[in-house]
Amino acid sequence: MLHVPAAFSAGVYRGVSMRLIAFLAAFAALGGTARAAPDKMQAVEIGPGATLSVQVRPVPRAGAGEVLVRVRAAGVNPVDWKAAPRRVGLVPGVDVAGVIDSLGEGVTGFKVGDAVLGFARQSGSYAEYALIPLTSLARKPRSMTFEQAAGIPVAAETAYRALHEAGRLTRGQTVLVHGAAGGVGSAAVQIAKAAGARVIGTASADNHEFLKSLGVDKAIDYRAQRFEDAVTQVDLVLNTVDADTGARSIGIIRAGGALVSIVGPPNAAACAAARIRCVRPDRAAGAPNSELLEKIVELADAGKFKVFVDGAYPMTDVAQAWEKSRGGHTRGKLVIQVSAGSAAKHQ
Ligand SMILES: NC(=O)c1ccc[n+]([C@@H]2O[C@H](COP(=O)([O-])OP(=O)(O)OC[C@H]3O[C@@H](n4cnc5c(N)ncnc54)[C@H](OP(=O)(O)O)[C@@H]3O)[C@@H](O)[C@H]2O)c1
């Protein structure tokens, strides 16, 4: 049976366009697959001093060009805790995987009940319901659990833009990925391999088997060896670690090569002297990225992109997840288990 949202009660029907009525009728024809979210939900909220608690909050409603998703899992990124002091009173998190609950006006190509992933920048993602704009929405890879899928959006977008857009990666090039076992690094290794690159990755020795499982051709233990002594004349370096690692990378890149940094700009004069391009991924927050996400989903469906979940935490334990993330040694991704079925591949 179709559950009609309170907002569509008799009095409000006056003025509702024929298009919306047709839309609701289409759900009814689907045998009642339309679900209306409740008015209230459980969500993590950032308090003063970036404290965290689970609160009852209003469920957001999908506006034009948005979908409302019943969240199964939310991905953790360092930006979540870095931005927390500026987001008091709001729901943290960007990465989300779940099932579409309702469609805003003008949304095509998706239907209620679809398993999806995407960016929930405005609403936040550590909540039972989150809003994803159509421009940042993709279907969930069939082979992935919701937890794995929740680890895709920010890390994969960053890695893809860093390698393909900023780095102009071409087949046959040699790429060095610093921090290859982390969220962005592990995504970058797989995206570079899929593009036909030779990939070298830095990580501590404990992560070398993991790097091999991602496809790296050569792993460097940054604790036992200076990477400058192990590699030279690479075409492209992706630095996900720190400014010092970026500065030390300039000397191992061939003239005409590129250093892409997502952790602060390297010294421009040193880059010019070495005749390399030093760049950041060009990404305005909120820029459309659904086509990019779809490319990653296709890689995942082809078995060429995986997400390793290092830890899955209930909403009550977000502080522990952030503490682990702050430690700087996450393997793959951390995720928040938001609702039942987060570890399932299907609904
Ligand atoms: N500008 C952007 O658009 C953007 C987007 C996303 C992320 N970021 C930033 O990029 C950084 C990485 O993000 P992330 O999500 O990938 O973080 P992450 O998952 O927390 O990265 C953790 C990884 O870093 C590795 N690591 C730590 N120190 C290392 C070192 N000295 N050399 C090599 N590897 C080292 C660790 O490997 P071991 O355990 O083996 O040491 C671990 O696997 C963060 O600062 C984040 O804020 C920026």
In brief:
The chain is α/β, with parallel strands linked by helices and 347 residues long.
Keywords:
347 residues; 3 domains; alpha/beta; 27% helix; six-stranded parallel β-sheet; disordered N terminus; binds NADP nicotinamide-adenine-dinucleotide phosphate; Rossmann fold; 11 helices; Quinone Oxidoreductase, Chain A, domain 1; globular
The computed structural class is alpha/beta
Ligand list:
NADP nicotinamide-adenine-dinucleotide phosphate
Tell me the radius of gyration.
22 Å
CATH topology annotation of the largest domain: Quinone Oxidoreductase, Chain A, domain 1
Please give the CATH class of the largest domain. Alpha Beta
Number of strands: 15
**Inertia-based shape:** globular
The CATH H-level homologous superfamily of the largest domain: Medium-chain alcohol dehydrogenases, catalytic domain
Q: Mind summarizing the main beta sheet? A: 7 strands, mixed
The SSE order reads: HHEEEHEEEEHHEHEHEEHEHEHEHE
- First and last CA, distance: 19 Å
Indicate the percent of residues in helices.
Answer: 25-40%
List the total number of helices: 11
Mean pLDDT: 91
Write the layout of secondary structure elements.
Blueprint: H1 10-13, H2 18-29, E1 40-47, E2 51-58, E3 66-76, H3 78-83, E4 95-103, E5 115-119, E6 129-133, E7 137-139, H4 146-150, H5 153-166, E8 174-178, H6 183-194, E9 198-203, H7 208-214, E10 218-221, E11 234-239, H8 243-249, E12 253-261, H9 268-273, E13 277-279, H10 290-301, E14 309-314, H11 318-326, E15 333-337
Parallel strand pairs: 8-9, 8-11, 9-10, 11-12, 12-13, 14-15
Antiparallel strand pairs: 1-2, 3-4, 3-6, 3-15, 4-5, 5-7
Helix pairs in contact: 5-6
This protein binds NADP nicotinamide-adenine-dinucleotide phosphate (NAP).
